[in-house]
Write a structure and sequence with these properties.
By secondary structure, the protein is an alpha+beta fold. Helix content is 61%, strand content 15%. The chain is built from 4 helices and 4 strands. The protein has helices at residues 18-28, 54-63, 78-120, 123-158; strands at 6-11, 36-40, 45-50, 69-75. It is elongated and about 65 Å long.
Amino acid sequence: MTEYSYVSEYKVPKMDCPSEEGMIRMALDGIEPGVILEFDTPNRKVRIFHGDNATTIESRMQSLDLGATLEKTEPVLDEELTNVLDAEETSSQQEAGILKWLLAINAILFVTELFVGWWAESTGLIADSLDMFADAAVYGVSSMPLGIALIRNCVLRTFPVGCS
């Protein structure tokens, strides 16, 4: 069996925006073995791909007080898991692309403002350029987990643990 042997589907009546998705992600973060989440916000459902840790997942979902109810748990098909991993990889690539653009824009603004501030002897422009540098650093650090997620999905797809 793989690390993701089961898929549980929850109905979450109070999940109507990305902030509730974030709450669910944080609540399930650190569960061993890990989980993969698939959100259907318009229908207020979340599918959780997991191992033999359904009771831990259930208790964490209930602790969020979003009205989550377990609709079903069933064994996951290899094809279904592959589709979810592909979708997660595509999403991560899109997010990484956006972060790279933001990083490039902030880096260009940093250099431009630093040069113009130095040339004009304006401490305000130099200070703002350092703010742009800080933003660029945040975008650079933020892109690291996306890269790790892409690598993880590639490894899972290439070397499935115990798949038959």
